[in-house]
Amino acid sequence: MGLGAAVLALSNHPLFRVEQLTNMGKYTLGIYAVHMLFVNNFRLLEKY
To answer: Cα–Cα–Cα angle for 41, 47, 48, nearest 5°?
Structure first.
């Protein structure tokens, strides 16, 4: 899903030029970084 969202974002199609999505763009790196913290912590829980 992430790869599909990235391809849609890079396509520059008029249908995807939505102001709310444009405003969220500045948070994508932070969202990705926090996501990786959660994934790593859940992998630790799988061992128990």
So the answer is: 100
| Containing structural domain, residue 40 | 19-48
Q: Please, what's the b/e burial string for 22-38 (b: 16 or more CB within 10 A of its CB; e: otherwise)? A: eeeeeeeeeeeeeeeee
Closest CA to 31 of 11, 2, 4: 2
Q: Is the pLDDT of residue 14 over 70?
A: yes
- Give the residue with greater pLDDT, 26 vs 8: 26
Domain assignment present for 13: no
Residue 47 within any structural domain of the chain: yes
pTM over 0.70: no
